[in-house]
Specification:
This protein has 297 residues and is of the alpha+beta class. The protein folds into two domains: 5-193, Formyl transferase, N-terminal domain (Rossmann fold, 3-Layer(aba) Sandwich), CATH 3.40.50; 198-288, Methionyl-tRNA Fmet Formyltransferase, Chain A, domain 2 (Roll). It is 26% helix and 23% strand.
Length: 297
């Protein structure tokens, strides 16, 4: 049970494993995607159909016949990865449900754990295998892989690394399931995260580290943009301790424009004004007559 590319990668290793047999896949319905809103199937569905695996796409797991179909497939285990819906007790009672969650639980329960680890500037992250219960990502832990987060890594590269680890962890847990003693999560250490909204990408030049972490976390969508709507497409962090006026231009160079924050400074390399094509930061400043000491945006 899963929907995005993260779940597709896990499904692929299960299909490839000679000691695993996947006989049913449940994923979200096809959704409109892109500017033209073309109805698009989830990555998991595309992969499952390519291998002749039966696919169900209920709007809700409570839809008529879903529980009965899962029960009729007589699963030994149910693997869940970024499915997007809570599993009701009727499904949890059919077979043990193993969830592959992209955080070190009990931190970042919920919908956006990978973004949260970047937003908070965490030193470590990982994947947790959890035995599901009716609560939100609250079940006992079966195992986890963790690693140190590279300082410059952004969302897509971090997600790729987590997906690789989730694939390895899935096989380890399923192959050794009967030998594992699940460990209860420490509830007092739990934290929760919500779905990312478009408005979360708006930034101000208050704190260079926090702005840069948003740039890392919101790669692709929603991106990072100023209150005027100008998108910051490529930036680098310069330092995190100096004090400046918010958005003050410190240096204009061929390879970027250094801009001060109330705390720290950043190098802006590529920008995209509203309704314009992307441009290098030096050209942006030249076109607006902006010089060192001026406020960029």
């Amino acid at each position: 049970m899963g929907t995005p590319s993260y779940a597709k990668e896990i499904l692929q290793v299960l299909i490839d494993a000679e000691d695993m047999d996947v006989n049913l896949v449940i994923t979200q319905p096809d959704r409109p995607a892109g500017r033209k809103k073309v109805l698009t199937p989830p990555p998991v569905k595309i992969l499952a159909q390519a291998h002749g695996i039966r696919v169900l796409q209920p709007e809700k797991l409570t839809d008529e016949g879903i529980v009965e179909t899962i029960r009729a497939s007589t699963p030994d285990l149910i693997v869940v990865a970024a499915f997007g819906q809570l599993l009701q007790k009727a499904i949890l009672d059919i077979a043990p449900c193993v969830n592959l969650h992209a955080s070190l639980l009990p931190e970042y329960r919920g919908a956006s754990p990978v973004q949260q680890s970047l937003l908070h500037g965490d030193a470590y992250t990982g994947v947790t295998a959890m035995l599901m219960e009716e609560g939100l990502d609250s079940g006992p832990i079966l195992g986890y892989y963790y690693f140190k987060i590279p300082e410059q890594i952004r969302l897509h590269a971090l997600m790729a690394k987590l997906s690789q680890d989730a694939c390895r962890l899935t096989l380890d847990i399923l192959r050794n399931f009967e030998k594992i003693a699940p460990q209860k999560q420490i509830k007092t250490d739990a934290s929760y995260c919500k779905k990312i909204k478009k408005g979360d990408g708006e930034v101000t030049f208050d704190d260079a580290r926090k702005l840069y972490n948003k740039y890392r976390a919101f790669e692709g969508w929603p991106g990072v943009f100023t209150t005027s709507g100008t998108k910051l497409l490529e930036i680098e962090i310069v330092e995190t301790n100096s004090k400046h006026r918010r958005g003050e231009i410190m240096c204009v160079a061929q390879d970027g424009v250094t801009v001060g924050c109330l705390k720290g400074s950043l190098k802006l390399i590529t920008l995209q004004p509203v309704s314009k094509k992307p441009m290098d930061a030096k050209s942006y400043c030249a076109g607006r007559g902006l010089k060192v000491g001026n406020i960029l945006i």
